[in-house]
Predict the structure.
Amino acid sequence: MSRSWVVWTTGVVAYVAAVLQRTTFGVSGLDAAERFDVTPTVLSGFVVLQIIVYAGMQIPAGVLLDRVGARTMIAVGAATMAAGQFLLAFTELLPLAFVARVLVGAGDAFTFISVLRLVPQWFAPRRVPVVSQLTGILGQLGQVLSAVPFVAILGATGWQTAYGVVATTGLLVCVLGLAVIRNTPPGTTLTTNPMGVREVGRQLRLVWMRPGTRLGFFTHMGTQFSITTFALMWGVPYLVSAQGLSRQAAGAMLTVSVASAVAAGPILGVLTGRYPMRRSWLVLAIILSNVVVWTVVLARSEPSPLWLLCLLVIVISVGGPGSMIGFDYARTSNPGSSLGTAQGMVNIGGFLATLIVIEVMGVILDRRGGYSFDSFRVAWLSLYPVWALAIVGVLITRNKARKKLADEEGVHVKPLREVVERIRR
């Protein structure tokens, strides 16, 4: 195995561990409600706080990434998440439990964009879209680890042991990252430009004003938030309490989710690399498919059959690898010196939408009396305004990005109908 694949594989292991740390609370939500004796609103507050920290740290993490490199960021992120999980394992005090989720959110923020940063450093440009997709989908194996072995350990040995085990994985990843990961291949160096506060502010404005960055932001928002809300917080309670599945069956659904993402990711990566001027159509198709399948499920006045729930999970799970298209927009619209900052901005989109929806759903469930079928049916309606905003954002920023491309590089994107008509001829 070449050095590039060794470094990348180690980065993916770090990301798998980060997703594991991120999703443990969602699959143990009902246990957490009992352990800390909290209402649905307070329970959702754990994950909302974690995501607020994660989203809020994206830009600082991106700036730091541009300065210190991926190796340090990955190691620090893993150690921070381990500290949070150890704290959550042994505390029964609600304030300390919230502090623990803050640490998990902060460490998580350092990890994904750092692993993504390794890809263009270690691989040829033609391979970057596919390897980036593989990074995202393989990282979701962490969700399988939380849904299956973590849940099994939780049920067999209890809260402290289960969270102690996942905390230990964070420490192991920290050591592994420092030992194996290097920011750049031998013979090359990471170029950094020390900046003061004004320079940082100027760079942030410059990166955000690029239409491609904003297009990536709305892409990430519209594709990712539905499956993230489902996986991080409300999916398992919904499947168990409203749809009548057992906890094991609900965990299996999350495994189906990961398998769907793994299957869809390479396909989207190839299409993204082969048709870079049509990436937005992939994005819009993913968003609209989410809208359709959720509408079918929520229109029912009784629990859905298992096949329909499987279809729901499969369709919304494509949004995970679909959100990687947003990072591809950031990569192709920004120079390497500010790529970490751009990726951080893009990554805010989906998680900002997720935290809003999770909190709104918690409030709705509280006011409607708990985890009933009808309560969830109303709560999930909070998805629709975000989809509307994302679609409008994609359409507007796509036009601006295309105009910029035409003005600066003389590249004109032909309307899709002209391309289709030419193919028919």
